[in-house]
Amino acid sequence: MATFEAQLRTGTGKGVARKMRVTGEIPGVVYGAGQENKNLILNRKDFTMTLIGEGENLLTHIHDLVIDGASEKVLVRGLQKHPVTDAWEHVDFLRFNATKRIFVKVPVHIVDEEGAPGLKRGGIVQTVRHELEVQCPAGSIPESIDVSVGALDIGESVHINDITLPEGVKVFTTANFTIAAMVGVKGEEAAADEGEDEGEAAE
Predict the structure, then answer these.
(1) Pair 74, 108 in one domain
(2) Structural domain boundaries, residue 137
(3) Which end of the chain is more exposed for a tag (fewer CB within 10 A), N or C?
(4) 39 shares a domain with 122
(5) Which of 152, 156, 157, 159 is nearest to 120 (CA)?
(6) What sign results for the dihedral spanned by CA atoms 17, 19, 20, 21?
């Protein structure tokens, strides 16, 4: 869990946001839980260091947002970067409500790789989906989704319908897309292409 420091922002619009970015600040907003939206100011350097510290847990962990000394629990729901400089430009926070169901992207965790028959025959596990977008209660966001590849031989794969999701977690899709595959060295590109094709079909 990280702590984000912010101040209330009174001005709005592109001009105000542009001036903030020049002075090393970024605009943000916090919303949800039946309360009014609040426009925020955050220090870009401090914000960037906090993001680096959280890594892949940023979007799945509950964080403290301290606004002018008052703290509340939030989730990070949106981040914007400058397309050229890669500097952070905006952040959205969602107030935490443990029972509210939300959509969130959760990392895929490949397990049982060492015992896979295909690995013993010189195969390679190709992870096609590194994260899954799921719906779950905000208070029960899984750290990751375990995907077992222990039974895979070369040419076989694990699809979304093959895995058991944690209680209360759902994936909404009509496509039985590939999550991971056991491929030979020459089959790596084919597995990646399969995942891209299935992703396009799901859209």
Answers:
(1) no
(2) 101-202
(3) C
(4) no
(5) 152
(6) positive
pLDDT, residue 20, reads 76
- pLDDT tens for residues 39-60? 999 999 999 999 888 887 788 8
Q: Which two tokens stand for residue 124?
A: 């390679």
> Would you list the DSSP string of 33-91?
TTEEEEEEEEEHHHHHHHHHHHGGGTTTS-EEEEETTEEEEEEEEEEEE-TTT--EEEE
Query: In this structure, are 122 and 190 located in the same domain?
Result: yes
Whether 140 and 189 share a structural domain: yes
pLDDT in tens, 63-85: 999 999 999 999 999 999 888 88
Say whether both 88 and 137 belong to one domain. Answer: no
Q: How far is Cα 14 from Cα 140, in angstroms, rounded to an integer?
A: 36
165: amino acid identity, one letter: L
What's the structural domain count of the chain? 2
> Which strands make up the sheet holding 178-183, listed edge to edge?
124-127, 178-183, 157-159
How far is it, in rounded angstroms, from Cα 155 to Cα 126? 11
CA distance 7 to 157: 49
- Smallest CA-to-CA distance from 105 within 159, 143, 67 is with 143
Domain identity same for 122 and 168:
yes
